[in-house]
Structure formats: structure tokens, C-alpha cells
DNA sequence: TTCCTACTAAGTGTTTACCCTTATATCTTC
DNA sequence: GAAGATATAAGGGTAAACACTTAGTAGGAA
């Protein structure tokens, strides 16, 4: 039986090396390359056409969403599985919108990683247990093909209006609704409506999480400790 | 030759399982247990007396510093190697002050993890390349033994106590006081007191500003893409 | 011992955030 | 002109954060 050819794109060396090791140890898989750089991942994929890419969403210089969308162009046969510490549905959706076929978090089990690779390789979509539990329905997503891949990769911030973006920047600075209202010369109630809409659109439940999402978009990578 | 007996304490299941796998694959090592809970790590160590503990510094309900200090009491022969995403010297120092004998980041190589285990097992102190490059001199540290272990887990970080640091990290993750109370098994009221004290000590007026201060000090890496 | 710090947790407020609905005016766009 | 999106802002509600106080316990230090 042919081994499934895998590319690992993950910026933490220890994780990248251990995953390479365990996948190569399994007779079903072979890691054809690994890299810590997302641009490199796209280049390598274009040359080696791996069947599967394990793609961390926190990478330089492109984030996982952008790298996934580009990868779909240079190597359409390659299937991407998103990998991250986050189970935030926003990231999951963004990865699928970018053309990913699977998503697992680092709270998944080792067996779950195998399952994900096998499922995606055989043409299925896959998300891990942790994300399923949040009520995410992978089959309810619009089908992603060459016609619309990448079109939704900016939908999070893109769906925020100018005012919402402006206000979210104020929130990020630690300003209260009262402060924002004063600064923008609008009613506190208006600010509150905007806040609510921002949280709803970005699917977070409080301002701290909002700021985390905003930071992750603008190039901050959040580590948890 | 006797295998080196290892306990892995790491909250991300996928990482925990892959490390268990690769260490068990190597004839020099055997993973006697692994867990995602720091209290459990202390309990297990007390029973199994592993020679080495690989301890992630981000754990619940104790952080890595506290777990390491307690471990020194219940299993003095056990040597702890700190593991984290951070090369922040503050965290490295705190871990050594808590009694750790080694520290590697997740940017270390797989071979470096082996080296660390072997070095620490043979009685040396060890820090990875990445930390060495920052000019950290492990041998310049005061010697840690039963008389002073834990005494230096103090106020280098803006005079926040261990509990306050732990709670501020929970806040950073977007958790509410209710969530934090549940996770740490303490009263919401206690969490609120800590929150209040944290804000007062760091001279900020809300959680978003707190997170900004925490991010500016450590843990966040600004990427440009 | 006494002192000090940390952790715990209660009480009692005020303020802010967040949820949901309704509504008006303006603007583009089909 | 109708439809849709945006910005505005109000009312009424719950939940959470924040402010301040008191107080018991535990442990180490003086």
C-alpha cells in the first residue's frame, strides 16, 4: 500500500520534529517535508505535491488561512488539515473557508490525528471531537472549490463595518464605552450596540477574547501558559 | 542499562501523547505516567517517584512553578525539566527557583530534549540553546535545595504573587471569574479579590488593559505579515 | 512569640458590560 | 421606489466586573 505523503508546517521545532517522527514511524504515513515558514510551505507543496498538509494556523509570514488559500492554487490536489491550540469556531470556519478539509486542535489525541489524516485523504471532511462538541457542523458549510476558495478568508474583519472597526480599536486600547462615546461624540447606547454586534460577528463573549482575536489577525500570536 | 523513568505533565493531549510515544520508542527512556493536571502530577510523582518530570509551566490548577516546588517536597529525588513556549528569562528563573534542574522551550529540537533528560538525570543543570543565547547562566544561580526551594518564586513579575499570575493568565485567555473559580476550585469571591489586587498592582482599570500590560511584558510575539 | 504575606471568602455596594428589541435617518444599489 | 446595509439611539433587563471592607487561616521570617 502506498504511504500517505505528508507535509508538516508548524513553527515550533520540537512539535514539528516529534510529529515527523511519529508519523514516519507509522507504516501508513510518510513525511515528505516539514517547515516552520508558511511561504516555504506553499513553495514546497508546489514542488512535492503532498497529499496532506498539517498546517498550524500561527505561522510566519503568512497566517494559516492565507497559506491554505494559496496552497489551493499551487497544488489543488493537496488537502490541508488545520492545526492549532484554538478551538475558537471563528478560526475553524476561516480555515474551512480558506479551503481546508480538516481541523484538529492540540487537545486532540494522537489517534485523532491519524483519523483526521485518513479521513481527509479519503475525501471526507474532518473536525476533532473538541470542535464537534461546540456544535460545529462541517457538512453545513458551503462547498469550497476553485470558484470560491479564499473568498471568505477575510470574512471576520471584512464583515465589520468601519464604525465597528473603529470602535473595536478603541476597545483594544482598554477604553470603556463611556470613553469611546466621548471620543467619537456618540451616545453610550450606540457604542453598546456596536460592541454587541462586534462580539456577535466575531463570535466571542467578552472584550478580552475580542482583543485576542483582533491581535491574532494583526500578527500577534497568542501563546497560552 | 536501566531506562530513565519519566513523567510527562502537559495539558495538550496531542503533545502529551506524541512525546510519550517518542520517548517510549527510545530504549533509553520509559514514560511511567502522563497527565494534564498539575495536582495530579504531584500526586503521581509522590507514588511513582519518576527520575525525570517534563513539566509544562502552563497547567491547572497549579502553575508549573508551584507544582515543581511541591514536587520537591513529595519526591525529592525527582528532577524537573521545565517546558514551555517561552524563552522569557523571568519564567526560566522562576522555574529554577522552584527547584527545576532544566528548562527547554518548544523551539528546541528533539535531540535537545533527549540531551536535557540525560544531562539532568546525570546531575547536571540544563537549559536549551535558545535560552543560552540570551545570556542565561544556569550556574550563576543560587543553589536550590530543601532549605530554600520555592523561596524565590517571588515578585520579579511586577510584584504579582503566584496565584495572581495564574489568575491573570486565565483572564488573558478571556475566562470569566466564574470560569476561573471553577477551574481553580476556589470561590468566585476569591477570584474577584485577586482580580482587584492585580488591577491595583499593575495600575490598570480593566481586564483589557491588564491583558495589554501582560502582553507587552511577555508571551506575545509580534509578527508582521 | 509576634509579625508579615499570601490565600481564602464573605458582605455590600456601584459601574460597566452584555443581551435583546425597537426605531429613525441616511445611504447605496438593484 | 423598494431593498439592504449602516449609523444612530432609546428602553429594559441580566450578568459580570470593579471597589472597598472585614476576617479567618496558614506559613515563613524576625
Output the radius of gyration of chain A.
19 Å
Query: What is the H/E string of chain A?
Result: EHEHEHEHEHEHHHHHHE
Proportion in helices of chain A: 40-55%
What is the CATH class designation of the largest domain in chain A? Alpha Beta
Per the CATH scheme, the topology name of the largest domain in chain A is Rossmann fold
The most extensive interface, with participating residues per chain, is: A-B, 46 and 47 residues
Number of DSSP E strands of chain A: 7
Q: What is the overall pLDDT average of chain A?
A: 81
Uncertain regions spanning at least 5 consecutive residues of chain A = 146-156, 218-225
Oligomer: homodimer
Q: What is the distance, rounded to the nearest whole angstrom, between the alpha carbons of the first and last residues of chain A? A: 42 Å
Structural class of chain A: alpha/beta
How many individual domains of chain A? 2
Under CATH, the homologous superfamily of the largest domain in chain A reads: Response regulator
Number of helical stretches of at least 4 residues of chain A? 11
Largest sheet of chain A: 6 strands, parallel
Strand order of the largest sheet of chain A: 2-1-3-4-5-6
**Amount of beta strand of chain A:** 5-15%
CATH architecture of the largest domain in chain A: 3-Layer(aba) Sandwich
Principal-axis shape of chain A equals: elongated
